[in-house]
Each structure stands twice: as C-alpha cells, then as structure tokens.
Amino acid sequence: MLTYTFKKDSGISLYEQLYRHIKEDILSGKLKAGEKLPSKRALSGHLEVSVITVKNAYDQLVAEGYIYGIEKRGYYVSNMERPLSASPAACVIQEADEPTWFLDFVTNSISAEYFPFTAWAKLMRRTILEQDKALLYAAPYNGAAALRNAIADYLHQFRGMTVSPEQIIVGAGTEFLYNLLLQLLGRDKVYAVEDPGYSKITKIYESNGVALQQIELDENGLSALQLRQKNADVVHISPSHHYPTGIVMPITRRQELLRWASEGEDRYILEDDYDSEFRFVGRPIPTLFSVDENEHVIYLNTFSKTIAPSIRISYMVLPPHLLHKFRQNLSFYSCTVSSFEQYTLASFLSQGRYEQHLNRMKNRYRQKRDKVIKLIQEGDLSRRSEIMEQDAGLHFLVRLDTDLSDRGLQERAKQNGLRLALLSDYYSRPECAPPHILVVNYSGIELDKLSEGLRRLANILEEKEDVR
Amino acid sequence: MLTYTFKKDSGISLYEQLYRHIKEDILSGKLKAGEKLPSKRALSGHLEVSVITVKNAYDQLVAEGYIYGIEKRGYYVSNMERPLSASPAACVIQEADEPTWFLDFVTNSISAEYFPFTAWAKLMRRTILEQDKALLYAAPYNGAAALRNAIADYLHQFRGMTVSPEQIIVGAGTEFLYNLLLQLLGRDKVYAVEDPGYSKITKIYESNGVALQQIELDENGLSALQLRQKNADVVHISPSHHYPTGIVMPITRRQELLRWASEGEDRYILEDDYDSEFRFVGRPIPTLFSVDENEHVIYLNTFSKTIAPSIRISYMVLPPHLLHKFRQNLSFYSCTVSSFEQYTLASFLSQGRYEQHLNRMKNRYRQKRDKVIKLIQEGDLSRRSEIMEQDAGLHFLVRLDTDLSDRGLQERAKQNGLRLALLSDYYSRPECAPPHILVVNYSGIELDKLSEGLRRLANILEEKEDVR
Predict the structure, then answer these.
(1) Residue B167: which of A90, A209, A252 has the nearest Cβ?
(2) What's the DSSP call for residue B9?
(3) Three-state DSSP class for B272?
(4) Which residues on A lie below 8 Å from B334 (Cβ)?
C-alpha cells in the first residue's frame, strides 16, 4: 500500500502533505492511469492518520482531476497525458530605463505644487466620512449622478452648454472613452484625425484597426473639403485649441464642418475640448457641441489635465440619439472610475473649488509662461529663435535658427540632457513639416534649470550636421 | 456707426456686452459679410468706452472667426454661411427605472457590511498623508510598482504562481483589460467563449466586432476537440470555477487545453480566475498559468468581486513574449486606475489585510450559504426543489420542479417581486439548456425576506403555463 512519511513541524497540514505525495507519484508515473487507490479507511489505518485527512486529500485530487471516484467502488488514477512541471521561472525582459533628463520640454506635467492638495485631501477625507459605505457600491455605467450633475452645471456656467446630466458618460480617461466611441459609432467607419496632431489619438485608432485618414491642416485648421475628398465619416478635432499648433478654428470653418456632418446620417465630429480651460486671452470659444443643431457632435473633456494626471476621470457628452444607442449597446460596461473619486470630484466641482483652482492655475501658468519667454528672450538663444505663438495654453512654439535637421537637433539635445519636441514630431509625414519649430511645453519646466538648458540649446543650434 | 447700449449692473463686462452685440448683428445679418467695422478708436469714442474694451471685443470676435483683421486696414465681417442659433434644449429620453425587487436572486453583490470599511478608510487616510503629492503623478501604464509588487507576492503565496511584477498590467476592470487584449492578440483571431457562460464576456467580443465561437461545455467543462472543430485561436475560460455551472476543470482537460494552445503560435488561453478566492472546500486549484510551459496562458483577476464593486482594479499577468509585445504596441495607453486607489490597495495587500478579509468573507459566505440552503430545505420549496451543487463559490444551483417554462417562471416571479436567474439565461441558445435550474446568487440576498420569497416561489412553481 501507499507509504509516505509526514513532517510534523513543516507548517503544512497532514492532508496537504498526503495530497502532495500522491500527486507526485501520479505525475512521476509511480501510480499508473486506471490504478485503484486504497480505500480511505484502509489508507487511514495504514498511515495512522484520520479518515478525514485521507478524505480531504482525495477530494482535492479529485477536484484537480488527478484521480476520479466511482460510486461504491473507490478511487482511480486519471489518465495523465504528460507529466506537469512547475512553471519555468519567469524570464522577463526588464524594461529599458527612461533616460534622466536635465530639462524636459516635452512632458506637459501639471505642476504638483500648484494643486490645492490640502483642499483635495480634506474633500477626500470628508468623502470617506460622509459617503461611508456608499463608496462600496459601484457607480452606474455612466458615472455617479452627483458627478454628472456637477459636470452639467459646470458646462452650463463655463462653457455655455445646455446638457442634461443623462447625456454625460464618465470614464477612466479619454483614451478609454475613445475605445467606447469606436464601439458606439462602428468600426466600419472612416475616421479622420488632424495632421499634425496628438499622436496618441492616431495610435488608438490604429491599435483598434479602423480605417484612418490623416487630414492636413491649413492656417485655420481642418477643412471640410479634405474630409469629403478622403471619404471620412467621423472626425476627431480640437477646435478650441489645437495641439500643437495652437490654432483656434474660426467660426466659418466650424460652420463648414457642421454642414459637412449634417450631410450624412453617420457623420460625427468628436470635439476634444482638452486644454480649453487654459486659454489666456478673452472668453472661451463656444463649443461646436453647443452650436450643433443636428446631433452630430460628441463633446469630450478630461480632468486629468487640469487637476492631476493621476486623476483618471474624463467624460463625454452624447447627443440624445447616440445616448439612446449607448444605453442599448454599451451600458453593460461597468463604469471604470471608482465611486470614491467620483464623489470627491463632484464635491470639488460643486463647491466652486474647481473654478478657483482653474483661475489660480491660469494666473500661475501665465506667470510661468512669461518667465520662460523672458528667459528665452534674454539669453543666448534669443539670437537664434523667434517666439511664434503665445496664446496656446500650456505650450507655445519657437522657431529655431539652425542648420541641423530636426532629428539631428533632437539627438544632440538628448546628448546634452535636453528632451525636445519639435513640430515635425506631430506630423504623420515629418518631412512635410516646417522644420526647426520647437514645441515648448512649459508647465513642467524647472525654472532654475532653464537658463542653463537654453544655453545648451543655443550652443547646439550652432553645430553643423555630421556628414556621415 | 454701430450703436449699442450697455447694462451697468448686469455682471457682464463691457467688452463682453460689446462682443455679444456685434456677434448678434453679424448672426442676424445686420452686419454683412465683408462690411468694414469702425476702427477701435472711432468706436471707443462713439460708444464712450475705452479703446481696450473695443480691442478685447474685436479680439474675441477674431478668435471665434466672426470678423477678421487686415493689417493697416482694419476689421471686416466674415462670410457667415448660415446664422447660428443656440443649441436646442437637450431633449433627452429619461432612462427607464429599474423595477424594485422584493428579493433579488441575481445580483451577486458583495455585502457591504462584510467589508472592513474602517480599516480601508484608515488606509485611505494614511495613503493621503504618506503619499501626499505622489498621488498627483500618474502611475506608469502598467500600474504603480507598489501595487504590482504586492500582487506578485499575493499570487506567489496564495496561487502558487511565480511571476515578476513586470508581467502584471493593472487596469480599471477586467472589461477594460479585455478591450486591451483584443488589441494585443489581434482582431483577426477567432475568439471562443464558454456556453453557458458569463454573458458580459460575449457582449464585449461582439461589441468589438471580432469573430466569436460559442463552445458547448460537457460535465468537465470546455474541450479542446471543439476548439479545433471551430478553428478557435483564443479561448476565454474560468477553469478554477466556471460560472454558473460551478464546474472545476479536471487536470486532464487542462492538459488537453494546454496542448491545444501549444500547437499554434497564436493560440492563447485567457484564464479568468474570477471568484477562485471563494472556493470553500480544499486547497485552491492550481492555475493554468502556473502549469503552462509555453507562454500561451494569460491570467486575469479582479478586486472588484472580493473587495467591493466600486473598487475598479483588475489585473492581468502576461507571459514574457506578450509583455514585450504589449510594451511595444500598447504602453502608450495611460493606466486607467488612479494612483490613490493603487497605493491604498497595495497597503491593504502587503499588510495582510486582504488575506484576513478573504478568510473572514469565506467564513461569512459559507455561513450565509448554509442559512440560505437551510431555509430552502425547511420551507415549502423543499418539496419542489433539489439543491444540485453546493461548492460553487458565491452561488449554487437548485433544480426546480415545475410545469412552467423558464420564461414563464421568470415572468411570474417578476410579478411577485422576485428576480430570478435560470441556467438557461447563460446559454447562447436557451432552448438547449436543462430547464428549471435556478442560479442562486446568495451573497446579496436579504435573509429576513428569504422565507417569504421562497414561499412565493413555491407557489409560483405550482402554476400552469397559460394557454395563450
């Protein structure tokens, strides 16, 4: 009969030791397929363990399929096809380290020191206290009502948009919402994006394998003519403030686009209003959504850019007929944002904290932008640069005077610890871009390093392209 | 010249009033396309407002494209194609109200009273304090390192899985991860799901428009034979504990599946280990992932089911070559879970709180299940029912004795305030399902209403189908 020894102080229960022994014998082939195992009582007596220990071990082996029981006859070894072995130690390629930059002109990080962390933390604590167990229940698919109400109020007051909270769908980031929109509008459509534009959007469409057209911009942004030529169905734009050119689409263009959309039942404009909060001059530009009369515009915005990148809360506003379709086809998806953060943000909005925060941010960013521009104008770089556009929210453009190619420039900058984004980086065909235009994302720039960083850049500009 | 009156106490700045007046005149056609506007100085004198007020109004109109400026000549009205009007009041269909149930056997809600809310709230507060501004920075695409480390430790200790934290990708819910997996594995693949099965998974595949095969289960679950017959490339299974049948896939089947997967380079098994924490008998079943030697298994699990549905944190474990592919193709996606919740959960895991919580939950659910079963066995329903499977985690199956059809049964139950799930609800072809099998999701059932609910159900069972 099966004979095993048991360890007393191993911390492993007797039943588990027995289970392991038998399993080992099955895997090694010592116990053959179809072989009958001793009865529970017999093995219990033989090994001097309780019947329940044997029972538990057999049950586990049955549950995992190593043995099987036949009523009134007993237990038999299963037909194992090949011995199993432990998983090989995971051989994982380590991720390449990001280089550490002396100065990073690319990452548009919200400066953490600007965020009213104390107020936010207070709201978080109050949310824990007040919402209590409500935090344990999932929000509805479209987001917590409190948050959708607060967003609708905000849109009404600050974007002049009249929307019902029902039209708002909350999700964990705009990228996630785009994945939903592809499912809502259909993968059989031709999607169009701005060129130059935000490359992540292109990546999302490509990664989802839908037909994609790049639409070249002129000085007023995207034109409906090109949409027609390229048979686009759905176009993704940022009319209030295009990144990285900073173009504000004029009203005539907007009307052209709306007319284009109204000409086809399945034509839609995805209006990404990202960054519109940080326009520094004049009133905010009315949204396309609010002038659209034919339910062809979907409005999107995010709090990740204005509060903190770790706050993954975005939303979209659907026109009524699409809302209806969303409920029918996509409301099975659970809301991706935790209730806790939704309630916290709802309070932040409804108590006017968000407005305060935006105003404070606008002032600070304006000051920061002015300082960055002043340092550029005062240093060595000034002789070799021209600031092109100062009204473009959290970034501006600088034309550089150099003989280097854009790639050569970036490569040398990298060797000097500088991370640069150039306008050509945002073109689907970089060779078609105007060269040497630096996109300065200034919000994350450390001012105390800037003079040195600009000095390095000025030196690089004087270099010549290697003849390789 | 343009003549407007201004309101003094309207709270609207002069420049904005002027902007609105001119815009209105353009939209109404009073000011015609191409018409020249008065110079800023002239209009300022005429209206008795400052030049800067006129300048701001003109700038805003230029920014929005209503007028345009020509250097050294002045400002002209743009060519408006049609008058814009305010967006029509959003006409939104209100969402239908969910019926209120007397007793709900369907929703498998985690009982909020079981959750260690005080401990969790404490950890939340500590996270606010300790992480401070780190909370404002976005986690990397794959999740915060602290959380991935904690998950890797947990998997090692409680699931016997040796994985590197690098292999773990954190996301806001399993549904979101499935959307990523479709992009990772490719939409050109044939996906296969278990039939019966969890309908949400089917919906996700359908909504993403990929080829989908339903694979019928036998008493041991899904078989590789059918995968071959249906030319499946990727199969989605819950081998540790299938919902709703409760089948635990025996080791022979698992080996069959692994062999099937190893025969094709692009064949993958998505192992959804959801609910495996609540097996009440014996040791947990080893995962397919841990016995796979050929990198063909992707492991998925979630904390939404074990902690609270509002905690939208799931994760998947990728084999090394897929991790490599993920980094190349999909790491541009931002992590969908807020840093705050990731840090809180990481502490909850690494302080052993999660283990404690699971043990407590298991005990409480076992007790609750026993009470529910006892009430079924003691009441009127006992004569017309047979409890089929008691080991299936958070639900069990009851065979009902009735002449009613499944739909008739559900309809009558609804009229009596009872929400029932029947096994046939989980079949792609309900007519092929064994009838009258009730799926009792007991975790959310209110015990004090249960006797009355069961009495109502017993009465319904005696009814005859209407002859309509």
Answers:
(1) A90
(2) S
(3) strand
(4) 173, 175, 304, 309, 312
pLDDT given at position B94:
54
Query: B370 Cβ partners below 8 Å, 6+ apart?
Result: none
Cα–Cα distance, A393 to B330 (Å, whole number): 28
| pLDDT over 90 at B137, yes or no | no
Tell me the H-state helices in B143-189: 145-159, 174-185
B-chain residues within 8 Å CB-CB of A179?
179
Q: Does B86 score more than 50 pLDDT?
A: no
Q: How far is CA B11 from CA A277, A300, A427, B7, in A?
A: 21, 29, 44, 9
Kindly report which listed range (A258-262, A278-282, B216-220) carries the lowest average pLDDT score. A278-282
pLDDT in tens, B418-431: 999 999 999 999 99
Q: Which residues pair with A60 in a beta bridge?
A: none
Q: Residue A290: its chain B contacts at CB < 8 A?
A: 86-87
Q: Which of A52, A55, A87 has the most B C-beta neighbours within 10 Å, making it the best mutation to test the interface with B?
A: A87
Mean pLDDT computed over A292-315? 92
Burial A71-100 (b: 16+ CB within 10 A, else e): eeeebbbbebeeebeebeebebeeeeeeee
Chain B interface test: which of A53, A168, A283 (most B C-beta within 10 Å): A283
Q: Which candidate from B78, B203, B252 shows the least CB-CB separation from A80?
A: B252
**B247-276 tens-digit pLDDT:** 889 888 999 999 999 999 999 999 999 877
> Closest residue of A to B206, CA-based?
A183
State residue B300's pLDDT score.
Answer: 97
Interface of B with A in 203-242 (CB under 8 A): 203-204, 207-209, 220
A236: β partners: A193, A270
Question: Which residues in chain A have their CB less than 8 angstroms from residue B339's CB?
Answer: 310
Looking at beta carbons, which residues of chain A come within 8 Å of B293? 85, 87-88
Name the band, by pLDDT with cuts 50, 70 and 90, for residue B209: very high
Given the structure tokens 């915060």, which residue do they identify? B144
The percentage of residues in chain B with a pLDDT greater than 70, rounded to a whole number, is 92
Q: Which two tokens stand for residue B25?
A: 């005149």
